[in-house]
Amino acid sequence: MGLYEEIDGFFNPKTVALIGASTKPGKIGYVILENLLEFPGKVYPIHPKAEEILGLKCYHSVDEIPEKIDLAIIAIRSTDVPKTIRKLADMGTKNFVIISGGFKELGGEFEDIEAQITKIAKEKRVRIIGPNCIGIFDPRTNIRSFFQPRSRMLLPKPGSVSILTQSGTYGIILLEWSAMDHLGVSKFVSYGNKADVDEADLLLYLKDEPNTKVIGIYLEGLKDGKKFFEAAKEITKVKPVIVLRGGNTEKAKKAVKSHTGFLGGGGRIYRDVFRQAGVILARNLEDLYDMIKALAKQPPAKGNRIAMMSNGAGLMVQAVDAIEYEGMELAEFADETIERLKKKLPSYAIISNPLDLTGSATDDDYYNAIEIVLDDPNTDIILVFFVHQDSPVTPSIIDKLAELNQKARKKGKPILVGASGGPYTIELNRRTEEIGIPTYPISERIVRAAWVLYKWGQRKNTE
Amino acid sequence: MGLYEEIDGFFNPKTVALIGASTKPGKIGYVILENLLEFPGKVYPIHPKAEEILGLKCYHSVDEIPEKIDLAIIAIRSTDVPKTIRKLADMGTKNFVIISGGFKELGGEFEDIEAQITKIAKEKRVRIIGPNCIGIFDPRTNIRSFFQPRSRMLLPKPGSVSILTQSGTYGIILLEWSAMDHLGVSKFVSYGNKADVDEADLLLYLKDEPNTKVIGIYLEGLKDGKKFFEAAKEITKVKPVIVLRGGNTEKAKKAVKSHTGFLGGGGRIYRDVFRQAGVILARNLEDLYDMIKALAKQPPAKGNRIAMMSNGAGLMVQAVDAIEYEGMELAEFADETIERLKKKLPSYAIISNPLDLTGSATDDDYYNAIEIVLDDPNTDIILVFFVHQDSPVTPSIIDKLAELNQKARKKGKPILVGASGGPYTIELNRRTEEIGIPTYPISERIVRAAWVLYKWGQRKNTE
Question: What are the structural domains of chain A?
Answer without folding.
Answer: 1-134 (3.40.50.720), 154-297 (3.40.50.261), 299-462 (3.40.50.261)
